[in-house]
Amino acid sequence: KEDFPFEEISDHLEQEGCLVWVDICDPDSPQLSELGRELTLEPLTIEDALTREGRAKATRYPTYTFLTTYATVIRSQEDANGSPLPQSQTEQADGAQTDSPKRDPEPADSALIVTRLSAFVLRRGIVTIRHGSDFDMEEVVRRWEDNADLLKFGVGALVYGLLDFIVDGHFDAVQALDDSIESLEDGLFDDRAVSREVQRRTYRIRRDLVELRRVVLPMREVINSVLRHRRDLDAPAELDPWYDDLYDHVLRASEWTESLRDMITTIFETNLSLQDARLNTVMKKLTSWAAIIAVPTAITGFFGQNVPFPGFARESGFIFSCVVIVVIAGLLYAGFRRRDWL
What are the angstrom distances between the C-alpha of 341 and each of 118, 283, 285, 288, 325? Predict the structure, then answer.
C-alpha cells in the first residue's frame, strides 16, 4: 500500500508482518511534531532531525533507534569549474531555449555535495528525513527492490539497503577525488602548467577532502552502533554477513580518505617547492645574461672617457675593444652553459 494517510502510520506499525517506510523531504517543525506524537518520539530527536548541521551518529532509545548520516554526491568537473549548465536546466517554461549562464570560476567552487539524512528505525518500519532533493531516494528504493529476497528479514534489510547506498556514495566521492589528485600529479611537473591553476585546483580538492573526511570518519561509529544493536532491530543472523561487509566498506573508505589527505598535502608542498625551484632557475638565467651584458657596458664605458688610452683615436683601438667584448662575453656564456645556468 502506498500514499496512505499520515495518521495511519502507527496503525500499520502494529500489524504483524507489516513493513512500513515513510519518507519526508524538507520537513517543517509542525510536520515532525505531528510525527513525534504519532510515533511517540523523543523531542530531542525531533529537534536533531530538523537541524541541518551536526555529527553523524546512531542513538538507541527504548522503542526506536535514531540515525543521522550524510550522503555525498560529486558534481562533474565542468559544473564545478563553472561551465554552462545542461540544456534541460536552461529551457524556459514555454520551451524556448536560452543562453546558458556563464559563471567565473572561483577558488571556492566545490565539487562535493553533502546531504543530511536522518532516520527513525522502528520495530516494523523506518522513517527517513531528508534536507534537500540532492539525495536520490529512488536509487535506495531500487536497491531495496533489487534485493527483494532480503526484505523478508524485516526492517534490518531496509536499514542495510539505506546505509549501503550511502557508503557506496562515499566510495564514489573518494574515487572521484582520487582521480582529481592523480590528474594534479600528472601535470605537477609539466613546465607548461599554470601554477595559479594548480593552486586553485589543489585548494578546491583539499577543501572537498576535508568536508568528505568530516562525513566519512564518523560513519564507523554509526555502523558499529548499528552492528551492536542490530538484534534490537529484529535483524536475524542471516543479515550478519551483509552488515559485516558494510562495516568493511566503511573502514576501507575511511582509510582511503586518510591516504588522500596525505597525498594532497604532499602535492601542495611539492608545488610550492617547484615554484621556488623555477624561480631559482629564472634568477640564474637573469644573472647570467646581466653578467654578459655588463662586459660591453664596462669596456665601452671605459673607452668612452675623454682621456688618452691605448688605441685612442685609432681604428685599432675600436677593433681591440670589440675583440675584448666578444672574447670575454663568449667565455662567460660558455662558463654559464657548463654550469647549466643558461
Answer: 63, 9, 6, 7, 20
With beta carbons less than 8 A apart as the criterion, state whether 252 and 216 touch: no
CA count, 13 A, side-chain hemisphere, 81: 10
Gap between the Cα atoms of 302 and 306, Å rounded: 9
Strand 112-121 vs strand 57-60: parallel, antiparallel, or unpaired? unpaired
pLDDT of residue 89 exceeding 50: no
Burial label, 279 (beta-carbon count in 10 A; 0-12, 13-18, 19+): exposed
* Rounded-to-integer distance, Cα 205 and Cα 109, Å: 10
Q: Which residues contact 266 (CB under 8 A, 6 or more apart)?
A: none
pLDDT in tens, 191-219: 665 667 777 888 888 888 888 888 888 88
DSSP state string for 191-226: TTS-HHHHHHHHHHHHHHHHHHHHHHTTHHHHHHHH
20, 124 contact by CB (below 8 A): yes
Quote the DSSP letter at residue 3: S
* Per-residue pLDDT reduced to its tens digit, 126-137: 999 988 778 888
Q: How far apart are CA 139 and CA 116, in angstroms?
A: 16
- Cross-strand bridge partners of residue 127: 22, 120
pLDDT tens for each residue of 3-49: 777 778 888 888 888 888 888 888 888 888 888 888 888 888 888 88
Task: Residue 212: count other Cβ atoms within 10 Å of its Cβ.
Answer: 24
The pair phi, psi for residue 84, each rounded to 5°, is: -55, 150
Beta strands in the chain (DSSP E): 20-25, 57-60, 65-74, 112-121, 125-130
Percentage of the chain beyond pLDDT 90 is 4
Mean pLDDT in residue range 62-66 = 87
Q: Please, what is the angle between helix 315-338 and helix 240-303, to 10°?
A: 160
Q: How confident is the model at residue 92 (pLDDT cuts 50, 70, 90)?
A: very low
